[in-house]
């Protein structure tokens, strides 16, 4: 299970995802947030079977292993398996409350891509999420951020920040589809994911069929 945060860590980022597989945009987003928000520590949290994803995810053991490989060289990140250990649906609010209790001095920063932000009002107890975390949103190629999205939260604009990240067209869906089509070589995949992740996918024959 997860170790408590080191003493003195007081700007703590939280980045959740299916990470099926983790790819280069995930790593770039994490690095950008660490720098822009001067985070002391960034939790990378692979989700359990998220309530809003209909697709069955790859086995937790694979997603956790790939996430560890993807972030192994990114300082101040900690891959945390708590949502994979949790029975039942995964809710971000539960994770944030647990992290806040473990780090009572910390300000939490929740990192999201713009596609996730577009559906934020459907998240379980989203108002409580805004009470305890600042939301940092990265633009995404197929889901460009618009000012009107922020206008949907009158009086709460100070809870949202744009995470400055150049648009990166990569998605996990694209990677899985490339693999399933059989057309992708290990070299193709290695351009989209960190190299140790590409090797893991190949060694374990992931995404060959569904
Ligand atoms: P899928 O294609 O399976 O939906 P994904 O590529 O969106 O997967 P997730 O693990 O679901 O990857 O994403 C985790 C987080 O990273 C989400 O907040 C998502 O918006 C963000 N994210 C993923 N890819 C990008 C990208 N290319 N640019 C910006 N944010 C991204």
What does this structure look like?
The protein is an alpha/beta fold and 210 residues long. The protein has one domain (11-169): HUPs (Rossmann fold, 3-Layer(aba) Sandwich), CATH 3.40.50.620. Helix content is 39%, strand content 16%. The protein has helices at residues 24-36, 60-71, 82-85, 92-102, 114-118, 126-132, 147-151, 172-181, 186-190, 195-204; strands at 11-17, 41-46, 77-79, 107-113, 133-138, 160-163. The chain has a 6-stranded parallel β-sheet with strand order 3-2-1-4-5-6. Helix 2 packs antiparallel against helix 10 and helix 4 packs parallel to helix 6. It binds adenosine-5'-triphosphate (ATP). Residues 17-20, 25-26, 29, 112-113, 115-116, 138, 140, 168, 170-173 line the site of adenosine-5'-triphosphate (ATP).
CATH topology: the name is Rossmann fold
CATH top level assignment = Alpha Beta
Oligomerization category of the chains in this entry: single chain
Percent in helix = 25-40%
Large-scale geometry: globular
Report the CATH architecture.
3-Layer(aba) Sandwich
Major sheet summary line? 6 strands, parallel
CATH superfamily: HUPs
Report the average pLDDT across residues.
90
Strand tally = 6
* Overall radius of gyration: 17 Å
**What's the tally of helices?**
10
Strand composition percent: 15-25%
Low-pLDDT runs of 5+ residues are none
């Amino acid at each position: 299970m997860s170790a408590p945060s080191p003493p003195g860590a007081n700007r703590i980022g939280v980045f959740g995802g299916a990470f099926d597989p983790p790819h280069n945009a995930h790593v770039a987003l994490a690095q950008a947030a660490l720098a822009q928000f001067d985070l002391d520590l960034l939790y990378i949290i692979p989700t359990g079977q998220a309530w809003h994803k209909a697709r069955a995810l790859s086995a937790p053991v694979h997603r956790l292993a790939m996430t560890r490989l993807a972030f192994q060289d990114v300082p101040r990140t900690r891959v945390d398996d708590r949502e994979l250990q949790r029975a039942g649906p995964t809710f971000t609010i539960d994770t944030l409350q647990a992290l806040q209790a473990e780090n009572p001095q910390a300000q939490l920063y929740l990192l999201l891509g713009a596609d996730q932000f577009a559906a934020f009002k459907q998240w379980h107890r989203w108002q409580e999420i805004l009470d305890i975390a600042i939301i940092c949103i990265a633009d995404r190629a197929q889901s460009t951020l618009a000012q009107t999205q922020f206008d949907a939260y009158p009086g709460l604009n100070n809870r949202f920040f744009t995470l400055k990240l150049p648009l990166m067209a990569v998605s996990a869906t694209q990677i899985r589809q490339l693999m399933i089509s059989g057309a992708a070589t290990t070299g193709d995949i290695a351009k989209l994911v960190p190299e140790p992740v590409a090797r893991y996918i190949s060694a374990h024959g992931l995404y060959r069929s569904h």
